Amino acid sequence: MTNESGGRGAPVGEAPATSGTRGEGASGAGIAVADGTEILRLGPHTVQLRPENGGKYPYGNPLVVRGADRTAMLDACLHTSPADADLLLVSHYHEDHTVDAGLCPEVWVHERDAEAVRTEAVFASAMEIPDDEIAGLREMFRWSPVPEARSFADGHVFDLGGGVRITALHLPGHTPGHCGFFIEPDNVVFLGDVDLSSFGPLYSDEESTIADFRATLDRCAQIEAEVYAAAHHKGPYWDRAEYLDALKVFADVVDRRENAVLDLVRDGVRTAADMVGRGVVYRPGRRPEFADRVELSTCQKHLDDLVERGVLVAETDGGYAVA
């Protein structure tokens, strides 16, 4: 999930029924895609499926990797269907990455995100989704739990045959089990929701942490690849220097938010609830319906992180002060 506004694409909630009309056509991916989908080749065995809006939420940019024996899909999004893939590798449990996931015969997710894919109650709790919003989300994203989803750990290798291999890269912070995937021999890395957007990292879920995301950003800076592909509308990047520049802009947002929280505390705004609507996460103006919930959680995580590092202290009345 990302928090930038969406745009055009296949009708939300409808399964794709037609093949792409740009790029290589359906034969380039072997996967059902909605009309208008661009099939962009990233390597000899790897393509990206780009919807008309470029992959902005609620859409995304999944990859399809074809080996000699099996075909893998990396994330399942609104304009695609994983039904024709042999296995679906899920970067994390969010709704925009698990569309129709149960249609694939073999679904894999990192062990720390697995229960949120397998059961609705854990999914809703992890994202702190109110009960009255679940039905709408299920309909919009064709979402349902996948009880038989399998789990993997960091470094797990999926062998597709013919020398085509996908290695899981644990990149937590967005969710506890968020992962990227490194594809060989194409040397393509799929970054999931390390999406390099100007909005910056999102770490508002129940078990997301800023410390994890900072470690993930450090790991992403060390990845050597021919192509860097994110799950949403930025990229793909064929130039490493350009990728690193985009990663730095993305990472700097964490520091900007931290400084905004510190400034508010110094100005006497002492709780996360009082920080909502003051520009820490969302700029003034139009806000998505979930903005307050995301901003409350994000501000609280920054407060907790600053306390853990000794920059702030938690006071007995529930407020925070500079140490």
Structural write-up:
This protein is α/β, with parallel strands linked by helices and 323 residues long. The chain has 2 domains: 4-238, Metallo-beta-lactamase, Chain A, CATH 3.60.15; 268-322, no CATH class. Helix content is 27%, strand content 19%. The protein contains 7 helices and 15 strands. It has an 8-stranded mixed beta sheet, with no helix packed on it. Strands 9-10-11-12-13 form a 5-stranded mixed beta sheet, with no helix packed on it. A hairpin with a 4-residue loop joins strand 4 (63-66) and strand 5 (71-74). Helix 5 packs across helix 7. The longest helix has 27 residues, at 240-266. The radius of gyration is 20 Å and the shape is globular.
What is the CATH domain class of the largest domain? Alpha Beta
CATH overall fold name of the largest domain: Metallo-beta-lactamase, Chain A
Q: What is the typical, i.e. mean, pLDDT?
A: 91
> How many structural units, i.e. domains?
2
Sequence of secondary-structure elements: EEEEEEEHHHEEEEEHEHHHEE
